[in-house]
Each structure stands twice: as structure tokens, then as C-alpha cells.
Design a protein that fits this description.
By secondary structure, this protein is of the alpha+beta class. The chain has 19 helices and 30 strands. Helix 5 runs parallel beside helix 11 and helix 7 crosses helix 10.
Length: 621
């Protein structure tokens, strides 16, 4: 009997671990402050959330006509920068459907959508799993609230759905589809939640991908590397089969947030949304597809992605703050459109940080970040930096319990889910908050030596959007071990040390940890070598382009980490081979300037800036 009870407990624990324990994120982990919403019941659909926001003064209606081409995006970006409200454009030019933007542009609205702090969810998930090890009746009882919510991971079904009140032939021109940036190759659906099923196992994936509108009934399908939808399409294409796809535009806010979570392929985002909601997501059978779709969605596009078909997609202004260049991607052929009668079209703008996705990234990290400890118990905390575009800079604080456990942990993190797309990984000790950028720089300056504490991987998977290696999907990675005891106390630097800097330097700033950053317009490698030879007391010398603000840490992170490939763009005071091992010593130089062959950074057309300036008061009448 005891053995049977033990097996039962282990089975319960296994179900929970499968459901929650592998939910690892590369998103930002930041502390949240402010008032937590007291709402308990989840919002049933997008429009009930919109009404709630408006009743609290957190949504503004724009009743004058606004163009979805550039103008709406410029307005929304200004609202994000100001911490302003969500926006509902009632009369987008050329469209019959209202346009909703900046929905998740503050942490207050994130908390209202979830009903509580994302960090609270993360703590509860971790504690619930830990209670079950070892299993006991007391642990099961203490975690009963979580178990009840686990039952909601199975979606409910209905035969009548508001998302199918209207069924019509596809005509994307009737929707207020955005062009976000002047150099975009057209209009893009930017909040399209894509549902696919694995052709063999039937497992479902919900992911957010951009879709370029080609005509009334066809879009691109920008499936990026390491994404679940891309994996499903690969499986289908191996058999020469088309893949059925449903694209959901607008849904209850928790489902929308779940679509961006970096869950493992075998964890159903729709099921996880039910867990977060505390109530199953209602689903209905699609009209033309062999799949279920959200019953309370605003708009659903049903169709297929044919095997073996590619079309040039892009450029598109993306969240690295540059255009992602045109490339061949699959196409999505729409069979039919279903929607509710008074549908709202949801959209977002991505670009140079910070944008709306900053707050979604924070929430993602708060909810899922603590679960990294289930797989890597010596990881205390981690943070991916918004300014760097998340994947370009990850800092993890760890406990080193065994010799070279730092290296083991680094390799493990770089092999975990979407953390595998990390470009620069910095490991710090338990006494350092990984969100403290200046503190992390100090640790690197004092606890890091490139000869023994740096690993450079010259060829590895990278984010599809990374352009610094000049090769799609691949590039190099840099791992910095700054966990050691203080090994190199900083040398004192005086004004005289900087009196003979290269005349080509425009501006410079000495950051914590002996990081010298400067702007330069020409010959950055020559200037780097000149500074390295004249300033042996500094630790790092970093060259950035003139469009980078040295006094804004977030902009500085963007200017550095989106514009250098470690293997291509780092130089050292001394670089030799000892046998087959490369050895690096001395001052490290990084050429993080914009380079010929890079896509252009994102800038709004001046005529649009002036237009929005002129109309600003008109929008709020």
C-alpha cells in the first residue's frame, strides 16, 4: 500500500513537472512595483478587457481618422515612451474595423490582464513543484489551488462562438493592417497568433509571428529559427504535405500574452493560458480546418501554408531596432475569415527599445524565470536585457558548488529552449543582482580575466533577426565568467590618462568596471587599437556609432549588443595559440559600430513626425 501511494504521488509530481517544470524563459526578470489588480475572474474576451481599461482611464479613443500606414505607429510609440494609455482608433483610414494599439504598454495593464503580479505567478509555480519533492499528502494539500488550475489546461468546447458570428471570403484590405516603418516592404499583421499542430503527434503550438500582406488572401509566414510553428512546418514539408494554420487576431488578454511565452514545443500555450486564467479557454471547431480555434476571438484567418512554396518577405523594422532584410519565407493562403460582428483589430509596433514588447518580456520573465531552478538548481536568478533586444545579452547569477560548474552551467543554459539564441552570456556570483547593469560591469572588470574566464563559440545558432554575422540563423557566442573572487582590483584612472585619446573620437565615457565607450564615425578598428595601446589600465574599449546615447544605459545596450558579432568584432592586446588553444590577454576591444552590409537602423520619416506633431491635439478631442 505504501508503495502504491508513493507511485501515486510520483505520478502527480510528474504530471506537474511535465505541465510546468520545463517552462524556461529567456525573457527579462525584473521586480514589479505598484498596485496589483484585485480582479479574480479572468476577462472572457478582448473587448471586456478594453472596457475595463477605459473605465479606469487607461484607454483613449481616437475618433478622428488616422492612417495605419506609419501615422498610427508613430502615435502609439509616443504613448509607450510616455507610459500612456492603450489606444483605440475608431476610424483607421481605408478600414472597416477599429484598431487597438499599446494594449500592454505598462506594467499596470499587464497586472490588470493577469489579475495579479507576474512575479507572484512565478513564485507560486516554483514553490508548488518544490513542495512535491519529496511527495507527501501535506504537499498535495498545500498545492491544491495549483492543481485545480491545472485542470483548466484542457480547453472547453462549444458549438456556438462569437468568433464565428460572421463568416466571409478573405479580404485583408478591409483590416487596418499596419506599415510600421518607412522602409518596411508593405503592411504587416503584427499581433497574429498562429495555431499549428504537429503533423504526427497532433500537439498544438500557438506562437506570434509577423505576416506580410501580399494581397487580399495571402500573407508571408515569418517562422523564425527555434520556434514551434517552424518545427511543425518542417515536419509537414518532409512529407510533402501542406500545413493547416489558423491565425487569431485579438483574444482575451491572457491568451494574447501566452502566445509570446517561450514555452517548450510540447507545452500547449492555449492550455497554459487556461492555467493562468483559472478557467479553461473555450474553443470551437474551425469552419474549414481540422482544428479547434478560440471561441471568443475577434478575428480568425483560416488557411494553409503549402509545402515547398517560398516568397520574398521583408524588409521589416524589427525589435533589434534595425530592419530585418528581405528573405525567402513560406506563404499563408487564406481560405476563409471568421469574426465577431463588432470585431477589433489588435496590432503592435516593434523597433528600437523600449517598445510595448518590453513589458511583455518583463511579465514573461517574472512568470517563468524562477522555473529555471528546476533544471539548473545552482542558477539563482537571470535577466535578459530589454535594451539589447533580449537575446543579445543574458546575465545569470549562479552558485559555483563544484570546480568549473560555471562552464557546465553556461553550456546548459545555452542549450535550454530559446536561451540557445543568446549571443552574450555573463555569469555573476550570488551577491550580484543580474539586473544591475553597472554592477555587472564592475564584476566583469574585477572578477574576469579573458585568459581563463572567457569562452568564444565561433559558430552557433542565433536569432533569425541577428544580422551581425552576415549569415542567417547563425553567428558566434561569447560567455564571460565573472563569478570569481575579486582577482583584478581596478587601477586608478586620472584625467591625464585620457588626455591623448585619438582625435577621431567624438565623445567618450568611462563606465563602471573600466569600460571605456566612445563614438566614432570612421576607422573604428584603427581607433580601437590606438586606444588599447595607450590605455592599458582599462578593461574594455568599445566603439559605437554616433547615433548611440552614451548617457542612456538602455540605448547604450542597444548600440553595443545589436551591432557586434563576438568572433568578428573583438580584438585583444594579446592573442596567441598555445597548442590548439587560443589564449586572449590584456585589454579587450569591441567594434560595435554600424557596418557596411548591416541593415539600416529604424527612423521614422520626418514628414510623419511633423504630421503627428501638427495633429497631436486633434487626436484627443
Amino acid at each position: 500500500m505504501k508503495e502504491l501511494r508513493q507511485k501515486s504521488f510520483m505520478a502527480i509530481r510528474e504530471v506537474f513537472l511535465v505541465s510546468c517544470g520545463s517552462l524556461i524563459t529567456s525573457s527579462l526578470c525584473l521586480p514589479l512595483h505598484g498596485v496589483v489588480s484585485s480582479r479574480v475572474m479572468p476577462f472572457g474576451d478582448l473587448q471586456s478587457f478594453v472596457q475595463n481599461l477605459e473605465s479606469h482611464g487607461l484607454l483613449k479613443r481616437v475618433r478622428t481618422e488616422v492612417d495605419p500606414v506609419l501615422e498610427a505607429g508613430e502615435i502609439a510609440q509616443r504613448m509607450v515612451a510616455e507610459g500612456g494609455p492603450a489606444l483605440l482608433f475608431e476610424h483607421p483610414r481605408g478600414a472597416t474595423t477599429p484598431l487597438l494599439m499599446n494594449l500592454f504598454g505598462t506594467m499596470e495593464r499587464i497586472r490588470m490582464a493577469l489579475g495579479r503580479d507576474p512575479a507572484e505567478i512565478g513564485r507560486e509555480l516554483l514553490q508548488s513543484v518544490q513542495r512535491l519533492n519529496p511527495p507527501s499528502l501535506a504537499a498535495v494539500w498545500q498545492g491544491r489551488g495549483v492543481f485545480r488550475r491545472l485542470l483548466n489546461m484542457r480547453p472547453s468546447t462549444t458549438s456556438h462562438a462569437i468568433s464565428q458570428e460572421v463568416v466571409e471570403a478573405p479580404d485583408l484590405t478591409r483590416l487596418p493592417i499596419l506599415q510600421c516603418w518607412p522602409g518596411d516592404s508593405g503592411r504587416f499583421i503584427t499581433w497574429g497568433m498562429v495555431i499549428t499542430h504537429h503533423p504526427k503527434t497532433g500537439r498544438r503550438n500557438l506562437g506570434l509571428y509577423r505576416l506580410q500582406m501580399f494581397d487580399k488572401g495571402q500573407t508571408g509566414m515569418h517562422w523564425q529559427s527555434m520556434k514551434g510553428g517552424r518545427g511543425h512546418y518542417w515536419e509537414a514539408e518532409q512529407n510533402g504535405s501542406d500545413l493547416e494554420v489558423a491565425v487569431v487576431i485579438g483574444a482575451d488578454p491572457i491568451l494574447m500574452m501566452s502566445s509570446i511565452l517561450p514555452l517548450p514545443e510540447d507545452v500547449d500555450e492555449i492550455g497554459f493560458a487556461g492555467f493562468l486564467r483559472g478557467k479553461s479557454v473555450p474553443m470551437v471547431r474551425a469552419k474549414t480546418l481540422n482544428m479547434m480555434v478560440p471561441a471568443n476571438a475577434e478575428i480568425i484567418l483560416e488557411g494553409t501554408v503549402p509545402a515547398g512554396v517560398r516568397r520574398l518577405e521583408g524588409p521589416f523594422g524589427d525589435h533589434f531596432g534595425h530592419y530585418s532584410e528581405a528573405s525567402e519565407f513560406p506563404v499563408f493562403n487564406i481560405r476563409t475569415v471568421t469574426r465577431r460582428r463588432n470585431a477589433i483589430y489588435a496590432a503592435t509596433v516593434v523597433g528600437k527599445p523600449p517598445q510595448e514588447d518590453k513589458f511583455l518580456g518583463i511579465a514573461s520573465g517574472e512568470m517563468l524565470g524562477p522555473l529555471i531552478q528546476l533544471i539548473h538548481p545552482n542558477v539563482v536568478d537571470l535577466s535578459a536585457y530589454v535594451g539589447a533586444g533580449f537575446h543579445n545579452l543574458l546575465v545569470a547569477s549562479i552558485k559555483e558548488r563544484h570546480p568549473k560548474e560555471v562552464l557546465k552551467t553556461a553550456m546548459a543554459l545555452l542549450g535550454t529552449g530559446q536561451l540557445s539564441l543568446t549571443k552574450v552570456l555573463v555569469l555573476v556570483g550570488v551577491d550580484r543582482d543580474p539586473r544591475d547593469f553597472r554592477g555587472v560591469l564592475r564584476d566583469i572588470g574585477e572578477r574576469f580575466d579573458p585568459e581563463d574566464h572567457m569562452w568564444l563559440l565561433p559558430f552557433a545558432p542565433l536569432d533569425t533577426l541577428d544580422f551581425t554575422s552576415f549569415k542567417l540563423h547563425v553567428g558566434s557566442k561569447l560567455v564571460i565568467d565573472a563569478c570569481a573572487e575579486v582577482a583584478r582590483p581596478m587601477s586608478e584612472l586620472s584625467k591625464e590618462d585620457f588626455g591623448r585619446l585619438d582625435s577621431r573620437i567624438e565623445k567618450w565615457k568611462l563606465l563602471d568596471g573600466g569600460f571605456l565607450v566612445f563614438t566614432v564615425q570612421k576607422d573604428p578598428r584603427e581607433v580601437l587599437r590606438s586606444v588599447i595601446s595607450s590605455l592599458p589600465k582599462v578593461r574594455f574599449v568599445v566603439a559605437v556609432s554616433s547615433d548611440v546615447n552614451l548617457d542612456d544605459d538602455e540605448n547604450l545596450q542597444w548600440g553595443i549588443f545589436t551591432r557586434f558579432d563576438p568572433a568578428r568584432d573583438m580584438i585583444f592586446s594579446e592573442q596567441i595559440f598555445v597548442g590548439a588553444r587560443p589564449v586572449y590577454r590584456g585589454v579587450i576591444g569591441i567594434d560595435a559600430t554600424w557596418k557596411s552590409g548591416y541593415p539600416q537602423p529604424l527612423e521614422m520619416d520626418e514628414s510623419i513626425v511633423r504630421l503627428v506633431d501638427r495633429r497631436w491635439q486633434e487626436y484627443w478631442r
